[in-house]
Design goal:
Layout (H helix, E strand, L loop, with lengths): L33 E3 L2 E3 L12 E3 L2 E3 L12 E3 L2 E3 L12 E3 L4 E2 L4 E2 L11 E3 L16 E4 L14 E3 L5 E3 L1 E4 L22 E3 L17 E3 L17 E2 L19 H7 L10
Parallel strand pairs: 1-3, 2-4, 3-5, 4-6, 5-7, 7-10, 10-11, 11-14, 15-16, 16-17
Antiparallel strand pairs: 8-9, 12-13
Amino acid sequence: MKNNLNNSRINMDDQLNDPSNFFEEYVEIPYDKLIQEKNFNNLSWKNQNQKDIIFKKCNIFNSDFSHANLTGIQFENCKIFNCNFECSNLQNSIFNNCFLYEKEKQLGCYFRQANLEGAKFSDCDISLNNFERTEVFQITIDHCRAQGCNFQFANFSHMISRTALFSIATLTHTDFKYANFEGVYLKKCDLFDSKFVSVIFSRANLEEADLTNTEFSPSLYDGLSIFKADLRNSQLNNIDIRKLDFQGVKILEWQQEYFMENLGIILYPDNI
């Protein structure tokens, strides 16, 4: 593997200090829309229109952003714990070096049915976050920890005709262990250098996807389509290749052994 996610740039101990005892429940938006080094608890932005706001080095806990217009919002070096973004508009939002997973309570944030088209998560911990049925066309999740995330029926595609879908997503250098990708359409998407260990890919479409240098060992993959996917240099485990259509799939020579053994064929060296 070219990438070692165990050496991720995310380091919990090197991030923000524990919040002070002072929390605010109201945000005063400055003229430049930049909010720095503030602590918020029980913030309520439900149904509000708050576009292009920038939060830097803020702690935001137990807050409600549901059904809000948050287009272009940015979070940098923030802790965002147990927050509700359900049905919010987060198009072109940016989450950089943020924690959206509260390790002590094992709680993530809630994005169900939110619009995250064009959103970017970089160097973040989004473990156990719920992205069920979100709009995630052109989303980027890079160098993140996303263990146990729920992307069930998330929409990574746009319909370009009555019969054709077009998908764009970048899910790279990220640990998706135990994540749920049931029913997603990721055809031709970039998934390289990521870990897909014990994930659910039932009824998912990974046709022609770039899965190079991944750890690919799904726990459930009934109905998975992997036609012409690029699996070169990937670590494949726990897959019964007889249950999938590997036609056109790209692999390297050293990977042949796994496929042959999976079919019950015993390989011997040429000179014995």
